[in-house]
Amino acid sequence: MTPTTYRFGRFHLQPQTRQLLVDGQPARLGARAFDLLLALVERRERMVPRGELFQLVWPGRVVEDQNLKVQVVALRKLLGEAIIQTVPGRGYRFAAEVDDGGTTTIAPPPAPTLPPSAAAPTNLGAALGTLFGREGDLAALHGLLAGERLVTLCGAGGIGKTRLARRVARERFDHHPDGVWLVELAPLADGALVAATTARALGFAPTAERSSAEGLARSLAAFRLLIVLDNCEHLIDAAAALAEALLAHAPQVKLLATSQVALHLPGEQVYRLGALALPAPGDGADSAAVDLFVSRVRAADARFALTSAHHDAVVDICRHLDGLPLALELAAARVPTLGVQGVRERLGERLRLLTGGARGAPSRQQTLRDALQWSHALLGPDEQAVLRRLGVFAGSFGLGAAQQVCADAQIDAWAVLDHLAALVDKSLVLTEPGEPPRYRLLESTRALALEELQRCGELGLCRKAHAHATAGLMHQAYETQPKMAGLAWIAQWLCETDNLREAMAWSLGAQGDMRVAAELFSSAGAFWHLSGWIGEGVAHYRALQPRIDPAWPAELRARIALAVARLSAFYGIDPGEGARAAREAVGLLRESGNPQRLYTALYFLIPLAERVSSFDEIEPALAEMRALERPDWPPALRLQGRWAQARQLPRQGRSLEYRDAFVREVQLCSAMGDDRSAWLAAHSVALAELQLGRPNDAVQVLAGVAAQIRSRGMQRQFVYQIAMLATARIVAGDAQAAGADLHEAVALLRGEGALWWLGDSLGRVAARRGDFDAAARLQGWAMARTAERGDRRGPVMQAESERLAAELAPRLDAERLRTLQAEGALLDDAAVAALALGAAPMEPPSRRVP
Tell me, which fold does domain 135-272 have in CATH? Predict the structure, then answer.
């Protein structure tokens, strides 16, 4: 039966009278807007596709998408931005908590500084262009993925595996509530990075636990995902180990792998992708291979049309290249210059030369290699030099780095630009969208380029040039970091991850250069911290540490020490070692006369000194920061001084001043556009409110922050803000309102391997629903995890622990309590989650993004 009223916050939606009441008064709402709102509320448990909304709101009529957008804008203006969330390219979802009978609560909308725009749970990027001749393959893969957990799409290089996998993944959004995620393995040279790279692709900050296949798999146990592992063949053992772990420990995760060889795992379903269909002898040119070839020629020359004059030549080219998509694209790129007949003749000569005339149809893989070598042979000498030198780049690269690596005495930087543009025109280099644009070689092209570098004796020289170019980029990043907001800074530099890895690997290797390795490491401390690759930064430091030369310049040694202190401050390195590094950085920077870097070194020294109980260092460090600071310094830098000072207030019993200080910081950071710092400052405000006994105020602060985080799809990077909101609701005594936040926090913290963070709050949830045995077990689990970590509870969790103990004492005798606590100490995270949530489903339908 349809409820007479849906209630959410200040609003009452009355279907029978077709009214929306706001604080008891009728709102002005058009008929279409009312129908749209009612449709979304009635289907609030899921995302509603645009097509379905068109049928519900405009039945039997053809309307444009703009009509729907206008109504959504009108509803958001009335209800608040956060209540109707956009799922880009798909539809809309009603995000408020609704009561169709009693009372309800709704989280406050996000702060006005950041209007939300919901992020789709994927990293697939923009939809790709037309797929030629793959309709049957697409349907077959959908069928396999519907019933199987591991499907491997096998085929030769250049046959179109990646494009097909991305298309089928994009079409399966509705089957995987926690998202569809692409993991690109092609840039990796080290199988040890596969698990951490996968974690990063899913948006998790890589940790030591998630750097192993089993650790990552266990952290994904609660998520319903499709993961596309792309280009597995060169890291087949590591890819297979990850797939095997996910199959064993993440029961709701499905995998689609692309590879030239199978993973050879139990339960694997291998789908072998063939080449594009070719015209049968005597038939016309109607085939997928011909369609692709003609499409690519037209992309380069819009005047081109397939006519009887060159029909046979096009068919012949497609047959020569076995219908291999990449080879067809390479050949098509030459038509504007050579003409169809010219391509046919030169390609035929090249294939005969390469194959010695001794075989009929070449293998698919050999065909691609032949096509690449043919295309390479048509380049001028300088173009060939630029192409082979680009082979040292991993992943994408920018123009400046390409010029630095490729230029020599005969080819200046401007010539490199011209040759790079020519290589793009010939489909040997790909461009990536963005400003400024970036470039990339396909792995098959890169393999040929590296072979040519080796043959020409330039490999070592170009790897050195690449490492120097990357070190220069990282130094630019190091210099700009104090001047920029954290999210904007990492967004600018994250594209250099693969090149940083490649440069570090060469520099630390047998033929490398320790000085370059030191330059790279010392400049990348903030990069590893803000990108989440803290464990990787630590690993590089351990490789560099025994080879640090005391004769290196003091400025370089100071940067190394500062990078170590930063990694330690974020729990990558032991705090004792981190404190020693911070002291070293402070000493060296005092001598070098770099006040801004000295200021930052003191900022990291203070929390590290506190963690090792060296309290006598704190006030002198604060005083030195105050003396150094100048009003014309970048705002993002001066923030460090204010935060370092304010964080001492709770230890002095001045929680109210602590709260007021970080309220100001939220306002300042929001005004600067530094969203990351604003969210962290708001977390501190909420912590102070809880310590002051004002949990409802903490909820109000955190609800807006959580809405902004969710609108960016950044729940995993800011999981502790989501978890703090759930905790604040529990402390406020509103366990019902805490439900959705708690479900989300539990899933995310399990992904982080940090479910312990919620501690006794989970026990209090069980106690609130009257399950005191479960509450006692959860108390025992929280006590055991605290002891394991050698830690002590913070003030908020200590208060929660005391409240839980007070609730259990009158209801369980001492012996029963000890027995239940002992049982709880043995629980794993999955059992704890089920116990805390009352075996409820592990996700609220709208919140979770892994």
Answer: Rossmann fold (3.40.50)
